Amino acid sequence: MPEHHVFHYQQEFQLESGAVLPGFQLTYTTYGTLNQQRSNVVWVCHALTGSSDFTDWWCDLFGEGKLYDPREWFVVSANTLGGCYGSTGPLSVNPRTLQPYFHTFPQLTNHDIVRAFDLLREELGLKQVHTLLGGSLGGQQALEWVLQKPAVFERLVHVASNARHSPWGIAFNESQRMAIRQDPTWASSTPEAGREGLKTARSIAMLSYRHYNTYNEAQQEPGHSITDNFRASSYQVYQGEKLAQRFNAYTYWLLSKAMDSHNVGRGRGGLERALAHVKARCLFVGVDTDLLFPVEEQYFLHAQVSGSAFHLIRSNYGHDGFLVEVDQLENAIQQFYKSEILTEEELNYEKQER
After folding, report:
1. What is the average pLDDT across 26-37?
2. Is 319 in the active site?
């Protein structure tokens, strides 16, 4: 069974903005056992509203008899800094004031979040990671991480994500934050601040996560007589209510801002120059109906990263296809691993011929 742990970092942690956190904690999940060579590590970076429990939201990839069988792999995932599943975030108590951070929690970037992850990696003594796997916001963080620590990561599986967040994606996120700002409670400093606005934000987000075909198939009304109380309407309300029960507006605001600021070219001379320095062997995966992270973004990465592989998932679920079409994702990763073995066999054959 997956095991849940807490990592405590008790020194000051300076952020890209110049702000300083007086220490932090990360909750993290491990599954499986390290082999003697410590060569079987898989690290997973979760999406915007995910948690460190990858067996919850990518359950078909992890488990006995599955792609990442705990008898063969040691899998690690940490809840992001700023999160609300046990890691230090806006609802945590600031040790300097002995009050919850709430609105005073400093803005984060993926650069900051990845540095926090890497402190955990060092604490665990993991010098090499066989595969770094991330989707959406997690994919952004994974790409940033392989650039920060090129000697650590042997392979990157980057799913439905990008090298720099687009104006389109930023506009979607700002529309969601506008909904939170319109909630009168957002001005208060309470755990429930912005809760009603968060529901609307989630409803807006669903339009970017899914696709016309998704709604047409699942929310279409039977017959022709209905004039109100549509399935699609109740579905939007349901999605907002469901997220509000497990998340908070502060973290949603904070992490959507981190997504907006994602740009691996910042401080590295631009995207092309930065991506030319990727050392990990990469698989870039896109979803053909993804509106939020369209396939053009993954094609760009594939074109810029020498020796990388690309796979297109076909789905009617839009961006959420990276979570739904697990069979296709599993097949893509398996082929990625197999092609590496074939390449090694070809090289060995050429050496023998010489």
Report:
1. 97
2. yes
Q: Which of 239, 257, 275 is the last residue of a domain?
A: 257
Q: What are 109-128's pLDDT values in tens digits?
A: 999 999 999 999 999 999 99
Task: Give the C-alpha separation, 323 to 73, whole Å.
Answer: 21
Give the per-residue pLDDT at 156. 98
Helical H runs in the chain?
Answer: 54-57, 110-124, 137-148, 167-182, 195-209, 212-218, 231-246, 249-260, 271-275, 295-304, 321-324, 326-353
Q: Which of 77, 87, 136, 261 is catalytic?
A: 136
For 73-110, what is each residue's pLDDT tens digit? 999 999 999 999 999 999 999 999 999 999 999 999 99
* Residue from 111, 211, 311, 319 carrying the catalytic annotation: 319
Note if 136 is an active site residue.
yes
Model confidence over 174-199: pLDDT tens digits? Answer: 999 999 999 999 999 999 999 999 99
Instruction: For residue 154, count CB atoms less than 10 angstroms from its CB and return exposed for 0-12, middle for 13-18, buried for 19 or more.
Output: middle
Choice among 112, 183, 260, 290 that is catalytic? 290
- Do 55 and 89 share a domain, yes or no? yes
Distance CA 202, CA 179 (A): 9
| Dihedral, 253, 255, 257, 262 alpha carbons, nearest 10 | -170
Known binding residues for substrate: 202, 320
Please report the pLDDT score of residue 345 as a whole number: 53
Domain hosting 322: range is 3-168+263-353
d(CA 282, CA 305): 8
d(C-alpha 79, C-alpha 182), whole Å: 28
| Domain boundary residue, one of 257, 285, 316 | 257
Question: 275 and 136 in one domain?
Answer: yes
Point out the annotated binding site: 202, 320
Which tokens belong to 40? 């079987």
- Which amino acid, 116? A
- pTM for this model (two decimals): 0.95
Q: Which tokens is 85 given?
A: 């599943």
